[in-house]
Amino acid sequence: MPSLSTIKAFNEAFTFSYIPTAIFVGGTSGVGQAMAELLATYTNGRANIIIIGRNRAAADRIIASFPQPPSLEETNGVVVKHEFIQCDVSLMSNVRTAVEEIKKRHNKINMLVCSTGYLATSQVLTSEGVDESLALRSYARAKFIYELQPLLSNARALGEDARAMMILDAAANNKVNLEDLDVNNFSMLGANAATASYNDVFVKVMGERNPDIAFIHIFPGGTDTPGLHRSWLIGLVATLAKPLLRSPQDSASSMLYSLLHPDYSRGGFWLTKNADKLTLGNNINDEVTKKVWEHIVSRAQLQ
């Protein structure tokens, strides 16, 4: 288990042999924002960074804080940009539009990070008829990664890294209720457990189907992010527990380490908050994998 200081030292010393392209879905706050900021700092702006979210004002402030992209002379004519794509990712139709926009702008992706979502205390259905918390924490993430997989493959074909990451509760070995995959019998804990398991299954299947790409599901640990303050009750608990919570920057360091370290370069991975490897429990068996994958394909409208 590497210490946080070891993780930070590795990140700071890492250098790219190419100009990376990184996408942060949910990058306007919390860990996603902190990861984008760290990457911009460590590369001194020499990275294509795309932030996806709803809050344009927040994205503009974040991008303005980045080191300026290098000039064309410094990159031998390669254009480097820091961009924002506005998208309410709770709707799969919006995700598809964002995916198409990304494909117009870029022909490869080296890092694709999905950190959207929050702890919901009640079920709220989107206009597409699915629970919003499930859409944000599982379906939208799956759709971004699944539909942008060809651009990850393009990066790998160039001899570059290609890694996709979901940030939630990796390899928690929750029992999946196959009779209620939509979590209509809603509870905060039930929805959180379900989406964590769905992400486990997604990483498993995608890693098996695309063995040259890394698919990572990582647990951030207790982290003080804005998502903990959407509900007054959860916000109160988070405030009382603040001394025990990690900062978004410390969590982001571990997440970024997993996107840079050669130990996590190909296949499916489930990681702790300190980037230690986990294994899936017996609850993610063949039947669960098959039915959950079919559920994800349906709800995320995968093509």
From TrEMBL:
<keyword id="KW-0560">Oxidoreductase</keyword>
<dbReference type="Pfam" id="PF08659">
    <property type="entry name" value="KR"/>
</dbReference>
<dbReference type="InterPro" id="IPR013968">
    <property type="entry name" value="PKS_KR"/>
</dbReference>
<dbReference type="GO" id="GO:0016491">
    <property type="term" value="F:oxidoreductase activity"/>
</dbReference>
<protein>
    <recommendedName>
        <fullName>Ketoreductase (KR) domain-containing protein</fullName>
    </recommendedName>
</protein>
<dbReference type="InterPro" id="IPR036291">
    <property type="entry name" value="NAD(P)-bd_dom_sf"/>
</dbReference>
<dbReference type="InterPro" id="IPR052228">
    <property type="entry name" value="Sec_Metab_Biosynth_Oxidored"/>
</dbReference>
<feature type="domain" description="Ketoreductase (KR)">
    <location>
        <begin position="22"/>
        <end position="124"/>
    </location>
</feature>
